[in-house]
Amino acid sequence: MELRYPNGKKYILDKKDKNTRKTSNSISYSNRGMTLEEDLNITNQYYLQNDLAVIHKKPTPVQIVHVDYKSRSTAVIKEAYFKQPSTTDYNGVYKGKYIDFEAKETNNTTSFPLQNFHEHQIDHMKKVVQQNGISFVILRFAKTEEIFLLESQYLFNFWNRMTSGGRKSIKKEEIKQFGYLLPIGLHPRIDYLQIIKKIIKNG
Amino acid sequence: MELRYPNGKKYILDKKDKNTRKTSNSISYSNRGMTLEEDLNITNQYYLQNDLAVIHKKPTPVQIVHVDYKSRSTAVIKEAYFKQPSTTDYNGVYKGKYIDFEAKETNNTTSFPLQNFHEHQIDHMKKVVQQNGISFVILRFAKTEEIFLLESQYLFNFWNRMTSGGRKSIKKEEIKQFGYLLPIGLHPRIDYLQIIKKIIKNG
Per DSSP, what are the bridge partners of residue A151? Predict the structure, then answer.
């Protein structure tokens, strides 16, 4: 990772209000300054290196407008814009099965704001579920260091509640009820594969 | 994906292009004719809209160096560079199964240059195969309008032949022998899902 401006981060920070953003300066995470994204990348690396799963974060979608071709090998992008992603950020394969998820965090303590998701991301998740893929979100409560995995079908319910005029967030209690608390460790950092195994077993 | 030109015609224009161009990360925003990438995007759209499969091209990986934050909503990327992709360009789900492929084209007529692929892409494909994903490449011979699907395990053989000092390309005859000729149509444009079904059935 050599990005000086870590990808989604800045963009999302721009678009969201202060209590729902991907990073936080005041929070001591397992490593200082580590974001959920970084922890997931390290987790995915661990899965990859140990042949447990092949899951990658997609590159940040960028609309390229102007490129300087000084030479064949050194094209410099001089003007580009962040695009809204049309899918989720993470996908890959575990034992032949398609895995697809989005990861978000909040500084709220009692609920998770649904504005963290875009409607076309929800649409994408629905398509994935319809196609029998394993679809979920990873939700982190930054202040309490709690990370949950919530299968998409539950997210859809909360999303529907919002679009029919209900609350704009999921209560933490609801996440606890329908989701799984993820174990946090060192190797792997966020072991969501354990829950995927459970989901496959139960499904 | 917006189309300025109707379908088949632009293929013919493509023939003027240079030897082996890389469709996937090439600068298709310049909008010079239909590329294999565009045809695949339209095909994937068709699959998506008809609930046949959920397959997307990943965004081009870009290393962002400098961003201008003029205002909250308008971040302009002022300096960025193309990064070599560490995975293949396309992936998604068909009936729960993980699908993963790379698409390339050549203006050669009798063989397909292996330089179209990077070693880490081959490594990625090996990881996907190991994880029981469905992994292949789509190879287009631009001059003759022939598009083939070749499962990765065959590509690995040709890759190994090259790295042990053998030829640096796959003969078209070999692609015909081990791969599948893809039907070209309008809806969908390149119906590779038909072959995936066969592969699943035979596998």
Answer: A136
With both helix axes pointing from N to C terminus, report the angle between B152-163 and B119-130 in degrees, rounded to the nearest 10.
140
Residue A10 CA from chain centroid, whole number: 15
* Predicted local confidence at residue B87, as pLDDT: 96
Round to whole Å and give the CA distance between B20 and B203.
Answer: 32
Give me the residue from A79, A94, A124 closest to B76, CB to CB.
A79
Q: Is A200 on the interface with B (CB under 8 A)?
A: no
pLDDT-derived band at B22 (thresholds 50, 70, 90) equals very low
A108's tokens: 């709220």
User: How far is residue B30's CA from residue B26's CA, in Å, rounded to a whole number?
Assistant: 9
Residue entry with tokens 């354990």: A194
A43 is in an annotated binding site: no
CA A82 vs. chain centroid, Å, equals: 17
- Encode pLDDT of B116-155 as tens digits: 999 999 999 999 999 999 999 999 999 999 999 999 999 9
Inter-chain CB proximity A62 and B75 less than 8 Å: no
Residue range A7-59+86-202 forms a domain whose CATH class is alpha beta
Verify whether the Cβ–Cβ distance B77 to A80 is below 8 Å: yes
Give B96: exposed, middle or buried? Use CB within 10 Å, 0-12, 13-18, 19+.
middle
Gap between the Cα atoms of A184 and A148, Å rounded: 10
- pLDDT reading at B27 higher than 50: no
Would you list the domain boundaries of chain A?
7-59+86-202
Cα nearest neighbour of B60 on chain A:
A59
| pLDDT at site B8 | 32
**ω before B188 within 30° of 0 (cis)?**
yes
How far off is chain B from A53, nearest CA to CA, in Å?
A: 7
Nearest of A101, A62, A61 to residue A79 by alpha carbon: A62
The domain B9-59+86-202: what is its CATH number?
Answer: 3.40.1350.10
What sign does the CA torsion over A122, B44, A7, B119 have? Answer: positive
CA proximity to A111, closest of A171, A162, A65, A161: A171
8 A C-beta contact, residue B101 and residue B88: yes
Tokens for B36, please give them. 């294999």
Give every CB contact of residue A126 below 8 A, 6+ residues apart in sequence: A152, A156
Using CA coordinates, name the residue in chain B closest to A99. B98
Summarize the confidence of residues B54-76 as an average pLDDT.
Answer: 89
